[in-house]
Amino acid sequence: MSYTVAPIGFVRSCFKEKFAIPRQPQLAPAARGVLELLAPFDRAEAIAGLEQVSHVWLLFLFHQTLEDKPRLKVRPPRLGGNTSIGVFASRATHRPNGIGQSVVRLDKVEPGRLWLSGIDLLDGTPVLDIKPYVPYADCVTQAHNALADAAPEAIAVEWAGAALEQAQQHALRLGEPLVELIEQCLAQDPRPAYQVPEPERRYGVQFWDVQVRWHYPQAGLIRLLEVVPA
Asked: Would you tell me which CATH number, out of the four given (3.40.50.300, 3.40.50.2300, 2.40.30.70, 3.30.450.20), belongs to the domain 9-138?
């Protein structure tokens, strides 16, 4: 038996590329976006009472990694990208039905739009459902996960030359915490875990409408080189 689902809205996100998106929600509080709801869910009735909620669960589609053939095993970045485990033991984007879930902060509610932060969703992500976070039921204090028992260790981030000034100017123009966004995302080291780049290799990614470029001058350190219009 098959079922059909349809998006209730789409996310307008600071993340324009999959690269450098935090691998879990809440790891980058400065990551912000807006969920734009579709009719009939863009009416005030659909969100009545949601202003009393601080966080919500989003069920969504990994729309850029949908696959026809299901995977039984995946290689999570957390395990170095070379160790395989069962798909249901991971949160890999390669899901049997392409469904993801994230708990995110709800900053503002208005008919047709939900303003979110702490997101880990790519721009244009289709959202299938919204559920309020219920602390007494959703927070399991005795829970454990031996595969991921703590947040990834952050690496050092430093700004070179005029890069910080560039980021601050773009932050003022955008009205977004761009400096914090860049630092929070890059401190998690977005490169593949098995990759050891040469110091001169340059990396880049787009946040909002700016391109951020950096390199790894030494192990455990990211140096930001420039923040320029994309």
From this structure: 2.40.30.70
Segment 168-186 mean pLDDT: 98
CB-CB contact of 79 with 92 (8 Å):
no
Taking residues 191-213, report their average pLDDT. 91
pTM: 0.94
Beta strand 221-229 with 156-159 is parallel
CA distance from start to end of the chain: 45
CB contact at 8 A, 67 and 94: yes
Computed from CA positions of residues 124, 126, 129, 135, in that sequence, does the dihedral angle turn out positive or negative?
Answer: negative
> E strand or H helix at 214, and its extent?
strand 210-218
pLDDT reported for residue 2: 87
